[in-house]
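Example 3.2
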Amino acid sequence: MKRYEDLISQTFEFPNEEFRVKNNELYFHDIPLMDVIKEHGTPLKISYLPKIGQNITKATEMFRNAMKKHRYKEEYLYCYCTKSSHFSFVIEETLRNGSHLETSSAYDLEIVRKLHEKELIDKDIIIVCNGFKRPLYKQYIAEIINEGFENCIPVLDNLKEIDYYLENIAKPFEVGIRVAADEEPNFEFYTSRLGVRYNDVNRLYEEKIKGRENVKLKMLHFFIHWGISDTAYYWSELSRFIFKYCELKKICDDLDTIDIGGGFPIKTSMQFEFDYEYMVDQIVQNIKWICDKNHVPVPKIMTEFGTYTVGESGATIYSILDTKLQNDKELWYMIDGSFITHLPDSYGLNQKYIMLAINNWDKLYHKVNLGGLTCDSLDYYNSEAHSSEVFLPMIDNGEPLYIGFFHTGAYQESIGGYGGLQHCLIPQPKHIIIDRKENGELVTTVFSEEQTSESMIRLLGY
């Protein structure tokens, strides 16, 4: 039999830019994870801030390089989808790296106000307000535009939404229109419930926007649920959208921006392959070709990257509490947390993450099932993106084993109900932030301790 290290090095290209092993212990971005565990314990959430800036820089450079190559004479704008992670340390890191913001609800705009109070943003930042909007959301949009956030752009999701803004915004403002995409053939619905029907976009502009002095159509918004992908479906929908931009541009000179929602995928396995540069090159080339064919100026390109921005910055660490052999072949490693509450996408969407042992890389390995702490029979993890099985080092004589799930930084806290009630009252784990000084020295800050019983009892009304 082979050691766990042999399994990983022979299955993947390992070590790589993110992971390496020293003295049989795993390092993540040169962070000695065993040292972190010794100081902070498990279960543990980690946010590694430098990865956020690295991904923003990477995407920005790829788009600008492609624009230079294709002589694309407009600019690229990077926008962060706050819904992927609303934590202050995440949004502040995106802002430090030149990102604009995309919002989804009224309370997002309260965050915008807080950021401005702390002098972390100026009022000229672009704020793209998406979603089907409740009255409070529309009220807040009108208020912050009236307060001077002139680059706040409400993206119209239906034919009636603009009526509120026309009545309540006291200065000239700009809007976008979200064009409803056709869903993939295997989806339950034919057309997305979000956005304005393709054939109604022109009518909305002609009847509600054109000729008015106080409102301009600035942007068209495009969104594919599964994000940017090299498929016939994606290219067909993108082309259809760009043709709509060209059609509107001929009657609306103010229109100068397209917003490509639905972002890049992230690594869910070390066998992950996605040619980011090729996709960016093709997106820019296709937009320019269609615009040239229709004799209209190319638009500014904005992207909304949420998971791509923050997902790869996250890690979730567990201890193996015990082993259970339930029959002749089903061996369970029981973790000191819950997949349902800590990594809800693994439960609700069957999402896979990079999963690796943190110590004992010199041990022999075997097939296991990972079980969570809740009483729910679906609280388990037994396959990876590249394999229908999970392999981990054997545990000898009660020796501790620690495992990590990596690239867990997007959505898990908000979907899991951070700071609230958890299934079986499993507490939210301790959460730390790791950053680097200019000299490369690691700086660790505790963002939150493990959730207390008192906080749950209070929520329950006791």
